[in-house]
Write a structure and sequence with these properties.
2 copies of one chain form a homodimer.
Chain A lengths: L6 H8 L3 H8 L7 H14 L5 H8 L4 E6 L10 H16 L3 E4 L3 E2 L2 E2 L2 H8 L3 E6 L5 H7 L5 E3 L8 E5 L1 H16 L3 E6 L5 H13 L6 E7 L5 H14 L5 E4 L2 H13 L9 E6 L12 E4 L2 H17 L8 E4 L2 E3 L8
Parallel strand pairs in A: 1-2, 1-5, 5-6, 6-7, 7-13, 8-9, 8-10, 10-11, 11-12
Antiparallel strand pairs in A: 3-4, 12-14
Helix pairs in contact in A: 1-2, 5-12, 8-9, 10-11
Chain A binds a DNA duplex (16 and 16 nucleotides) through helix 1, helix 2 and helix 4.
Chain lengths: 338, 338
DNA sequence: TTGTAAGCGTTATCAA
DNA sequence: TTGATAACGCTTACAA
C-alpha cells in the first residue's frame, strides 16, 4: 500500500519501457496514440503523480515560483491589499501546477542575495509583489536570465502588471470637479519608491489644473498604513490650508485620515471629503464607508501569473511590457455630490 | 560562473570524498573535527547550498510542511487574524529550513484527498491553520502517520496549540462584573464547528451565573466576519432584551456589531458596551477603538511550528497534547469603567 | 515507435 | 576516520 508508484512500476504493469512512459507524461517524442491513451488511462486510474524531486533534479525545472514580498517595506501577509493579489496569483499558478516559495535573503545559515537564492533554489521564475525599484539586488535579479514579473515595480527590462493609476487619479479628479463640484484638493501619499504611489502623485501634480482645481497640500509620507495616514492628516489639518477634499493614495492611509479628521472635530463628508485608493475589504465597513478607487486585485494577480508562466514555458525572450489593468471609482459616504 | 557547486566539486577541491562532505553537512557519522571544520569553512566561503531536490529524492525528507487553510470555511490569506498566525509559523519554520506549501485538493488535473496529496508531495508534516473537526478527510490525515499540528481544531490524536479561550471569556466576565459593574450580557459568536468559538460559547454559558450576570441573548451565527456581526447585532437589537454589554467571539464580528449599534442610533459605550476577541490590527483603529481579548498570534504560530518540527525530527510518536497560550484583556473605548 | 542507459546531486552502506 | 558505490525516480539521447 505504501509502495510508491513510479514510471518503472507503470512500465512493468503495462509491458512498456520507462522512457516511453516519461515521454507520454511530458507530451514529447513519438508515441502511438494507442499506447499513449492506454498509459494516460492507467495513470489516471491508479492516481500516479510524478515525483517532483526526481523531475527537478533531472530536468532543472522546479515548477516553483519565487515570491518577493519586500521585507524592508514592512509589508507582510497581513497587508490585506497585497496578500489578496498574491492569493489570486497563487490560485492561478497552482492551477497550472506551480508552487510558490517565498524568497528570503538567507537559506539555512547563509545570507545571500535574491539572485543567489534563486539560483540555488532553481526557481523557474520570480514574482515581485512589491519592490523598491532602487534596490540593487532586485535589479540584479531582474536583469538576470530568470523570468520575473511584478505587480508594482516598474523598471527597464521588467514585465509588470499594474493598475491604471493615472486613470484612477483621473477618475477622482473628474469626480471632484463634475460631481462633487469642489475646488481645493489635497493629496496624502505613501513613498515614491513604490511606483504605484509615484504614478498617482505624478498624475495628480500634472493634471489638477486641467480640472480647474487648486492644490492646497501634497504630503508624501514614508509609510503605507493607517498610522501614516493619521499622522499626515494631523499635520495637514494643522497647516490650515483648508482643502475641501483629500485624495489618499491607499485605503489604509485614507482610513487613518478619516480618524484624524474626527479627532480634530471635523465631519466627513460635510467639512472635508475623502477619496481612497484600492478598495480593501474594510473600506466599505468603515464609518462612514469610504469612497475609493477600486483596483482589480483578481485580474492583477491572475494576469501576472499568466504572463510569468508563459515567459517560463515559452522561454523565448518574451516581450516585456507594462500591462495596465483598469480601475473603477466606488462611490460611498466619504464624499457627497452637490 | 554558472557552474553548479556540488559535494563533488567540494570534495575535489578539498581532496576528500563526496560521502565525507555529506556526512559533515548532515552532522552524521564520524569525521575528525579537523576536516569537519575545514569543510564547513570552505562551504561557508563559497556559499554552497545543498540541492534540495537531490536531497529529497534520496532521503525521503522534503523539508516541506503542508498547510491546510480550510477552503470551505471561506478563510483566505485575507483574513488578518489567521494569516498573521501563519506568518509567524512561517518565519519560525523557515528559520529551521522548512518551506510551506499550501495543500489543495488537487494536483495537476487530479482531484485528490488531503492525505493522498501529502503522500504524493511527501510533505514532512502538516499544519492545519483552521479546520472543520467533522471533515472526514481531515480526520483521515490526522490519524495517518504524517505529523500534524493545528492552531484551532481539537480532535483526538491531534496536537494543537490554541489560545486559552476559557481564560479569555473569564477575563471578560470578571471585567464586566468588577470594572464595568454591569449585569445584562449578550454574546454573538461564529459557528461551533470552529473549536475556538465553541470553547468561548461554552465557557460563557457555564459561567455567567458565577459572576451574577444575566444572559439576555446568545446568537450563534454561521459566519466569521463583519457582515455576520452586523446582521446578528441587528437581529439582537430588534429583540429588545436590552443587554448592557455584548461579547463578540471575534473582532471582525465585534466591528460589525459596532456598526449595527450606530446604525440603530445607539451610542457605544454609553448605551451598549462591546468586547471583542482577537485584537486584530484594525481593532485599535476603529472608532471607537475596540476593547478586546488579545490572542498572542506570535506565540501561537511559533509554538505550533516548533512542536510540529520536533514531531518531525524526533519521530518518536510524540505526546500529542493541547497546549494553551494565555490571552490578555486590552481595554479601549468600547467599554467604560464605572 | 519503442527500449536502453547515462546521468542529475544527494544519502547510506560497506569496505578500506 | 575516510573512500567507493549503489540507490532514489526521472529525462533524454541514442540505439534497436
Amino acid at each position: 500500500m505504501d509502495k510508491r508508484i513510479t514510471i518503472y512500476t507503470i512500465a512493468e504493469d503495462l509491458g512498456l519501457a520507462p522512457g516511453t512512459i516519461s515521454k507520454i507524461i511530458n507530451n514529447k517524442g513519438n508515441v502511438s496514440t494507442e499506447t499513449r491513451e492506454a498509459v494516460l488511462d492507467y495513470i489516471k486510474r491508479i492516481g500516479y503523480v510524478p515525483s517532483s524531486s526526481a523531475r527537478m533534479l533531472k530536468s532543472k525545472r522546479t515548477y516553483t515560483i519565487g515570491v518577493i514580498f519586500s521585507e524592508d517595506m514592512k509589508i507582510g501577509l497581513e497587508q490585506a491589499f497585497f496578500s489578496s493579489i498574491l492569493q489570486n496569483f497563487k490560485n492561478y499558478a497552482e492551477n497550472k501546477g506551480y508552487e510558490l516559495s517565498f524568497i528570503v535573503r538567507k537559506l539555512g545559515k547563509n545570507k545571500m542575495s535574491y539572485y543567489e537564492w534563486c539560483l540555488n533554489k532553481r526557481v523557474d521564475g520570480v514574482y515581485i509583489v512589491v519592490g523598491d525599484y532602487q534596490d540593487k539586488e532586485l535589479l540584479e535579479l531582474v536583469n538576470s536570465k530568470i523570468p520575473c514579473v511584478s505587480t508594482d515595480m516598474i523598471v527597464d527590462n521588467l514585465h509588470t502588471v499594474i493598475s491604471d493609476n493615472a486613470q484612477g487619479i483621473k477618475l477622482a479628479l473628474e469626480y471632484i470637479k463634475n460631481e462633487l463640484k469642489l475646488k481645493k484638493v489635497a493629496m496624502i501619499s505613501g513613498p515614491t519608491r513604490s511606483k504605484a504611489f509615484k504614478e498617482r502623485i505624478d498624475y495628480f501634480n500634472n493634471n489638477y489644473k486641467k480640472y480647474e482645481l487648486e492644490k492646497t497640500d501634497l504630503i508624501i509620507a514614508d509609510g503605507f498604513g493607517f498610522t501614516t495616514g493619521y499622522n499626515s492628516a494631523i499635520e495637514l489639518l494643522d497647516k490650515n490650508n483648508n482643502p475641501e477634499v483629500i485624495i489618499a493614495s491607499s485605503d489604509d492611509i485614507a482610513l487613518g485620515i478619516l480618524k484624524a479628521i474626527f479627532d480634530r472635530g471635523f465631519n466627513v463628508p460635510d467639512d472635508i471629503q475623502v477619496i481612497g485608493f484600492d478598495d480593501i475589504a474594510f473600506a466599505k465597513h468603515f464609518t462612514p464607508p469610504l469612497t475609493t478607487i477600486r483596483q482589480d486585485r483578481k485580474k492583477l494577480g491572475e494576469r501576472a501569473a499568466k504572463d510569468l508562466i508563459s515567459h517560463i514555458e515559452n522561454d523565448i525572450f518574451h516581450s516585456k511590457e507594462i500591462v495596465t489593468i483598469p480601475v473603477e471609482l466606488i462611490e460611498r459616504k466619504t464624499t457627497k455630490k452637490k
